Amino acid sequence: MGTIVCQDCQKVIEHFNDEKVTTYYSVCPTCGGK
User: Fold this and answer.
1) β-bridge pairing 12-16 and 2-6
2) What are phi and psi for residue 3, nearest 5 degrees?
3) Nearest to 15 by CA among 28, 5, 29
4) CA 18 to CA 16: how far, in whole Å?
5) In this model, does residue 25 exceed pLDDT 90?
6) Are 10 and 29 in contact (CB under 8 A)?
């Protein structure tokens, strides 16, 4: 299970299927829209 987390607010943006547990950092629309 992979997870995409907002690097600003730490909210989980999305889960995706992955063979290993991974965490990617991105920016959610709330933080990215500032």
Assistant:
1) antiparallel
2) -135, 140
3) 5
4) 6
5) yes
6) no
